[in-house]
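Example with several molecule types.
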Amino acid sequence: MELNRRDFLKKFAAGSATAIAAGSLSTAAFAEEAQVGAANIEQLGEGTDPIVTEFAFPGDTAAPDQTEYEADVVVVGCGWAGLHAAVTAARAGQNVIVVDKGRPGYSGMAPFSQGCTYFDAELGDNMDANLKVLQYTGEYLCNIEGFRHTLENSKQAYEENFEFGLTGGYMYAPASGITEFSQDKEYFQANLANERHHKWMQVLSAEGVTVLPHTMAVNVLVADDGRACGIVALHVKSGTAVTVAAKAVILCAGSGSYKPGGFVVGGDTFDGACMAYDLGLTIVGMEFDDFHQTNSFAPGDYYFSNTWDYVEPYTPYDTYNTAPVSDDEVAQYAAGKHSFMSANRVKQGLYGLAANDGSGVSNRTTNGSANPDDPRCAYCLSWGDQGKNRTADSYGACPGMPLHMASGVYCGWDERNGATPITGLYVAGDGEFGDMAEGVVYGFVGSTSTNCSVQGDLAGAAAAAYADSVELAELPEDQVVAATDAIFAPRTITKGWDPNYVVDRLCAIMTPPEVQLTKNAVNLYAALTQVEYLRDKVCPKMMGYSGHDLRICIEAQHKVTSAEMKLRAALAREESRGTHYREEFPYRDDANFLCHIGLSKSDDGHMTVSRIEIPEEWKGDLTADYATRYPGRFPGEEEALGLTAEAVEATGSYAHKD
Amino acid sequence: MSVARLDLNKCVGCQNCVNICPMDVFYFDENANKSVMAFPENCQSCAQCYLHCIGGSLTMSTLRASYAMSGGRALRTFPIEKSQYAQETSGSWGK
Ligand SMILES: Cc1cc2nc3c(=O)[nH]c(=O)nc-3n(C[C@H](O)[C@H](O)[C@H](O)COP(=O)(O)OP(=O)(O)OC[C@H]3O[C@@H](n4cnc5c(N)ncnc54)[C@H](O)[C@@H]3O)c2cc1C
Ligand code: SF4
Ligand code: SF4
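Resulting structure tokens for the full complex:
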């Protein structure tokens, strides 16, 4: 007989509950029983069903004592951006509440970033050269002034992270690149002094910030006068609605990713962007939102085997992917893609930024510096022998992440503080603030955690100043009721779908290479049709019982919305650029697409696509010849444009490996 | 490809996994003083629970806890009137 997991647990639960009730669970019996369950799953081998010895799901926890809060500033999500937003606002004298659907420090992407570098002119960093590289690698769609501003503020943000104790490195590996610890847990224990994750909560509490963990923001409420006035949230563990009335709301809920293995990026399921979209705000950068390869040595895979199935065949690391991809054109393209996704490749020898001489921000933390004591090469987690050999790593990772400092809420290109068009609503961090600071590639490796911290600092300061100038508005009762009804709707359905089904199906629709990597209209429309079906026919019938189920229902809904955004934006951009490759348009089309694509919700609830112009300064030298403007080639590009072999040879191609 | 139980006896009830897990996989059985791996199908394999497990009760497995769902399996039926959640009505938010 085949039991699904739920039945299985229920069946088991019935047994153990009876045993406990009857007081008959002797130690010996218990030990025996547990031993069966303990039969190490690894030992059972592949293809064998694990024996799960567990007590049953005990049900939702008791509701929290308090479910209605008031604050000056409420921060939604607390990774790097949220931490800085909360602390900055608190230091400005505001009463700050943080809600996070996980636990700050352990949730989202923040637990996994390793290097955290910053810009320091005093140490020789050259701003103009860096920006030039960014413009070039960001293929003329990156917010030059935005990124300048971010870099200018990055040292301060880094110093705050240092002050918070978040930059300590794990010990170096010996020259072999492998620690002497055979056990990952031993290695972790030996480095506990530098363990940073728990410090998030310590910092917040020291600053007097109230933290509501396991509390998922679901809606931002807007008062009659048009300003943001608080949030409705779900306390996941207990399945209880919670409200926070606040003068200012800062969304720092992170992003998401469509990388196959990283489809679920921690708690990041585009919640912030979806909440903003629901309010009518415009989301940009979705067609470029991509995965950042993780691999067997970076966080992102606890084990090779985890990511292997999904990810490794599309990563550039020969040792792992030679066999599965050697004949596969798609994978070859993907294999070279990482060289184009980061500014690393073009900086060398160009614009005076030599590799690892400390003058370039890009990739400093990945390749290390000539000077191991360079303070700009701080490592928050494990590191190798002077940056050369990786350690066995501090096992623990979430696979995948999005393009950084890119997609999110469009606030106007000149906006630096994350103030959205809705008064009192601010955005900061990855997937939230759509300022396109790094353009259309994964620009400066190892600087994102710092730069998200910068955005948090700026939004926190702006929100605090604004909160000082207004009174707390009352939460609109009708909106609270509507939001709460929506949260609990899955409990009112008697016949419907498990939300995990939506997530699984969406993963199957969105992650195949023909949708994610080598896009074309046929495949994109095919995917869109299926996503629309999920949106219209399946999502409204998602069922959930526990608070956990309700969370998954909301996340599934958000993933469907973001998938639609990604597909529509990809369809609209009929050219190839950065991380976006269209087979039928395998070239950059400066005449038509030096712009961004915006997505917003129309009054009738449909998703509309719009064109957002960009400043002339971003566009670079439009008189330069094509091959100079764009050194990288997409598959089919030279044929389509009739580029000479010399031009191709001189500039490399996407399949190039550095 | 997900968290797995190595030995339930070794669970000392510290609740680290319950507090840390970003995917809300763990709950806690107060009576038994043991954690409960309630939703392993949502595990993202980050291993944070494993690293912070004081008792050494958890392991990471190469097997995935969830199954690829077919439409048939995904169908849920739920007799609402019998539910502990049936009383949930709009307006009952907050306290
Ligand atoms: C594997 C990996 C390796 C990386 N390596 C590096 C590196 O070496 N250097 C570097 O600089 N950067 C690195 N990064 C990138 C860096 O981690 C991210 O840029 C950064 O964490 C983004 O910060 P954030 O605050 O915007 O979002 P996150 O850190 O993702 O935080 C978002 C928070 O919001 C919470 N949240 C989400 N939705 C809700 C909701 N609805 N309600 C309440 N809370 C919510 C989440 O639980 C989470 O705590 C890496 C990322 C990954 C995944
Ligand atoms: S591995 Fe990560 S996601 Fe999985 S149960 Fe442990 S803490 Fe949660
Ligand atoms: S972390 Fe380990 S010991 Fe602590 S409650 Fe969880 S399983 Fe038990």
